[in-house]
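Supplementary Data S3. Sequence and structure tokens for construct A.
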Amino acid sequence: MPTPTRRVAVVGLGPIGRKVVEALDQGIDGLTLAAISVQDPSKHGDFLARLKRPPVVLPIDELHTSADIVIECAPSKLVRSIVIPVVSRGKTAIVLSVGALLENEDLIALARQNGGQIVVPTGALIGLDAVTAAAEGSIQSVRMVTRKPLNGLAGAPYLVENNIDIAGITEPLKIFEGTARDAAKGFPANLNVAVALSLAGVGPDRTTLQIWADPRVTRNVHRVEVESDSARFSMTIENIPSENPKTGRITALSVIAYLRKQGSALRVGT
């Protein structure tokens, strides 16, 4: 018996949102692109006109009327307004600005109460399946070291508030050491990977993080080390930045891979 088609809406048409919209427009089994929401639709007219089936453009608070799944590819300040109408009606919100969930933890309870779901895709980090599995036992520690090109960190609130100037550095500089929760506040556009890691494992207050501004790297480099009662493992990934230097290209592909799993006869991974 064929799976009913589920309707998808996308909020934001930056590098990630456009890639996801294009994939949906080209066709993903069991899904259809139903709507988008953007601040200024006129800026995206040419892009939308190239789609085979241009979706309707709706304000954020109306997306739930046209979609079963809403994908947030927008500034973190919009996460709450995107998620509430969706999960309160028992639908699914895919959240990429994961750090915002730490300041809006009541959204998880809201989803639970109404049969909704908040999905955090793997994004720019490998090994979340392994961390999730290890968390079914006991994890002693999770440590992450991130190295980023200078333009990927420019303007981060933590740097501004602490008067840290990285513009002229010629050697790697450690600019932060602390918890994933504090990193999410200080680097809201950069460290969604750390928050996703913390939610998969031991939480944002026990997941520790170093951030390095590194003029020698051209990719976003993340190394994770985990100690648990079931395994000791480490993993490193070097993500090629998208048109937005704060975001890796693989982030959009991770969302698309998740969407393809929904209608797949074979599903690999937790």
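Construct B, processed identically:
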Amino acid sequence: MTSKLDWAQATAAVDAAQKVLIVTHVGPDGDAIGSLLGLGNALRERGKLVTCAVDDGVPSFVEFLPGAETVVNELNSGSWDLMISVDSSDEERTGNVGAYGRAHSTQVINLDHHATNTFFGDIYLVMPEAVSATEVIYRWLVHMQQPLTLEIAMPLLTGLVTDTLGFRTSAVTADTLRIAMELMAVGASLPDITARTLDSKPYRMIELWKHALPSVALHGQVIAATISQDNLRQAGLDDVTDGGLVSFLNTVNEARVAVVFKELADGRVEISMRSKPGYDVAQVAFSVGGGGHRQAAGATIDGPLEAARQRILGLLQPVVAAGVVQ
């Protein structure tokens, strides 16, 4: 998929708007919240009345970002001149706040970096070669001639760091590092952001791993684990992410692909996949209604847990059998 970048049209829409709603995907990660806050803080500096919303609220590990306290987790009133969806490949991923926003906004900008983007909305800033949605926002702010401040730079650098796993994915280029340097130049701390987002976990997450690790098994070159509702209860957690377990499994030498199956309270199963460079898990996610990137993708599918596990493992075997795909 090629980029579709309506820089001038998107900028004109922002300039014409007074009230702007920004939403991102459910189960937000560092790039989702970094995009939400980086753009939100920038547009506030441009004099806009900005509402930032995401169904699940701001995860604790990124609550340190400036503006995090302004994010709401539901919308039941209001209307906007412009809605901007960030880091979401399709409408469903924007959840309830996205559905409400689309019904109560005059225009919708679709800003994303997923190759599986469905091109919903009216104006597109879709750049699949970008390493993060915050990279797309950085480039848009340059086009707008919007000066960078610490309040903008911290969230944008957070998106770069988290979506590249600390600048270690195959999509990272010299230009990625140049953008990081620009953000650091206005005060965003790379060591602090890395420590807070990649190298920090609550003890309960380790408890969850303790209960999930006995399920780990190697299926050829695919390593898999399951997290059941019982595991979540044993760890004293509500429905949360896997805390980076899938990335940890992806470090196993014998594996080319890692996958974690998490049972949701409604019986559906959340799939998180990671791969070594050259192995494309996005194609599997897209085939079951999900999305993502070549090396990091996911989906939510119908259960029960074991049936979902067998289905996805079957789809992943051709990915590793095909060998390295450039």
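The two ends are 15 Å apart (CA to CA). The chain has two domains: 4-197, 203-321.
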